[in-house]
Design brief:
With 414 residues, the protein is of the alpha/beta class. The chain has one domain: NAD(P)-binding Rossmann-like Domain (Rossmann fold, 3-Layer(aba) Sandwich). It contains 15 helices and 13 strands. The chain has helices spanning 34-40, 46-51, 65-77, 95-98, 115-122, 143-164, 203-218, 245-256, 276-289, 294-297, 313-321, 337-354, 366-372, 382-387, 395-413, and strands at residues 55-60, 81-88, 104-109, 127-130, 168-172, 187-190, 230-236, 238-240, 260-262, 273-275, 300-304, 327-329, 376-378. The chain has a seven-stranded parallel sheet with strand order 3-2-1-4-5-7-11, with helices on both faces. α3 crosses α9 (276-289), α5 crosses α6 (143-164) and α6 (143-164) packs parallel to α7 (203-218). It is globular. Bound molecules: 1,4-dihydronicotinamide adenine dinucleotide and the ligand CC(C)CCC[C@@H](C)[C@H]1CC[C@H]2[C@@H]3[C@H](O)CC4=CC(=O)CC[C@]4(C)[C@H]3CC[C@]12C. Residues 135, 137, 174-176, 238, 246, 264-265, 313, 363-364, 368-369, 371-372 line the site of the ligand CC(C)CCC[C@@H](C)[C@H]1CC[C@H]2[C@@H]3[C@H](O)CC4=CC(=O)CC[C@]4(C)[C@H]3CC[C@]12C. Its EC number is 1.1.1.181. Pathway: Lipid metabolism; steroid biosynthesis; Steroid biosynthesis.
Length: 414
């Protein structure tokens, strides 16, 4: 079978930036009941693997928005798990509740930029899922720090695998490795092979592109013991779901504005979104299948996708915020684009002027405006063809879970 992943490879140049620049299918439609039913009615091969809890997994960034879902998904869906190591700069208190289960949960407070800390955490792990990263498109951190965490941190993870003999590495990349690009060209329902000029200037996509390249190039390197490293990269589009900070920010902004949000982006601009539970599920499946399908999957990239509808960023958010009492005002943008661009530029100036006094990092800046205002959607089945991925959560379930979570945020704010 030929290799895939030529077109929207995301290996295009960073024109600026730092320095320049044995699948267990889910029981469909049963949601959280799946694992319980699998215990009651084990599938062929299941009893064997349940008895052989032998694998050690490491999740970097395991206390982040996505990382927490990956951690919980592994505990629910990976019967071979013996020990789960969670490595993060900031450990969450919720980790305590996981420590009473059958799998040994080891919380490691550490920094991916510190090679020795990473090597100590990786040593003895069979699989590393590297989700840790600095997600900053608002100018909160310097480009150098973003580069250090996202690129050097990833380099440290790769070297730790090589030095300690860990063979399987799953990297959380991003749609941003591909685009939208600086020209604002649309990427309409594209797949991993769709040609697209992946050229970026912003430190975040630059860092993700460089890190992804490192991960893919490391595929096949000999690790301690002489066996080859098998790597692959997952590219989520905009992730939503329980714990999504930006959704929370929009919700609070709407409350402050008397239950209203004002349309800024034309409804015709599609923005790709994927439910966090499905992104986590895809990570778990890839981690499981990398060993058995190394020749096919090694060095590959996969977009993370599910059945979430294609909509504009704001209309999509309203799927959750609407049932929580917010209203999106306007069928068309209330302000002309040039004025939004002006306000976005003004925000950059204010951020710079205020930096000595305080951190001013609003949602609107020229980069986020360009992101929201450029069509970027994915339509692919590569993950299904390569490792049997089907979304674990339907759109209805993803929506319901997210709405419940926003409602709980509201409850806790009162
Ligand atoms: N949120 C989104 O829409 C998307 C996120 N991604 C990628 O998914 C991954 C996870 O993102 P989120 O969960 O949204 O972000 P997050 O900020 O919630 O989680 C990142 C985690 O990494 C940890 N971390 C940061 N710097 C670290 C360091 N130096 N050492 C150790 N841990 C460190 C943070 O403490 C945090 O727990 C990132 O790699 C991001 O680039 C990709 C596509 C979309
Ligand atoms: C007020 C504006 C007009 C609207 C601002 C919306 C923006 C804050 C968000 C629009 C698109 C988002 C990004 C996109 O979903 C892709 C991403 C991928 C990642 O890897 C990290 C997160 C993000 C950059 C995401 C961030 C918020 C937006 C820019």
């Amino acid at each position: 079978m030929g290799r895939e992943g030529g077109g929207a490879s995301g290996r295009g140049p960073c024109v600026a930036g730092p320095g320049a620049c044995r699948r267990q299918p889910p029981v469909a439609g049963l949601g959280g009941l799946g694992p319980w039913l699998q215990c009651l009615f084990p599938q062929p091969g299941m009893a064997d693997s349940a008895q052989a809890q032998k694998l050690v997994y490491l999740v970097t960034g395991g206390c982040g928005f996505l990382g927490e879902h990956v951690v919980r998904m592994l505990l629910q869906q990976e019967p071979q798990l013996r020990e789960l190591r969670i490595f993060d700069l900031h450990l969450g208190p919720w980790l305590e509740e996981l420590k009473t289960g059958p799998v040994q949960v080891t919380a490691i407070q550490g920094d991916v930029t510190q090679a020795h800390e990473v090597a100590a955490a990786v040593a003895g792990a069979h699989v590393v899922i590297h989700t840790a990263g600095l997600v900053d498109v608002f100018g909160k951190t310097s480009p150098e720090t973003i580069h250090e965490v996202n690129v050097q941190g990833t380099r440290n993870v790769i070297e730790a695998c090589v030095q300690t003999g860990t063979r399987f590495l799953v990297y959380t990349s991003s749609m941003e490795v591909v685009g939208p690009n600086i020209k604002g060209q649309p990427f309409y329902r594209g797949n991993e092979n769709t040609p697209y000029e992946a050229v970026h200037r912003h430190p975040y996509p630059c860092s993700k592109a460089l890190a992804e390249q490192l991960v893919l190039e490391a595929n096949g390197r000999k690790v301690l013991g002489g066996l080859p490293l098998v790597t692959c990269a997952l590219r989520p589009t905009g992730i939503y779901g329980e714990g999504h900070q930006i959704m929370r920010d929009f919700y609070h902004q709407g409350l402050r504005l008397g239950g209203r949000l004002f349309r800024a982006i034309p409804a015709s601009v599609e923005h790709g979104r994927v439910y966090v539970g499905n992104v986590a599920w895809m990570h778990v499946l890839v981690a499981r299948e990398l060993e058995h399908r190394a020749a096919l999957m090694g060095g590959q990239v996969y977009f993370c996708y599910d059945n979430s509808p294609y909509k504009s960023y704001e209309d999509f958010n309203m799927e959750f915020l609407g049932p929580c009492g917010l209203r999106l005002v306007g069928t068309r943008p209330l302000l002309p684009y040039w004025l939004l661009l002006f306000l976005a530029a003004l925000n950059v100036l204010l951020q710079w002027l205020l930096r000595p006094l305080l951190l001013y990092a609003p949602l609107l800046n020229p980069y986020t405006l360009a992101m929201a205002n450029t069509t970027f959607t994915v339509s692919t089945d590569k993950a299904r063809r390569h490792f049997g991925y089907e979304p674990l959560f339907s759109w209805e379930e993803s929506r319901t879970r997210t709405i419940r979570w926003v409602q709980a945020v509201e409850g806790s704010a009162q």
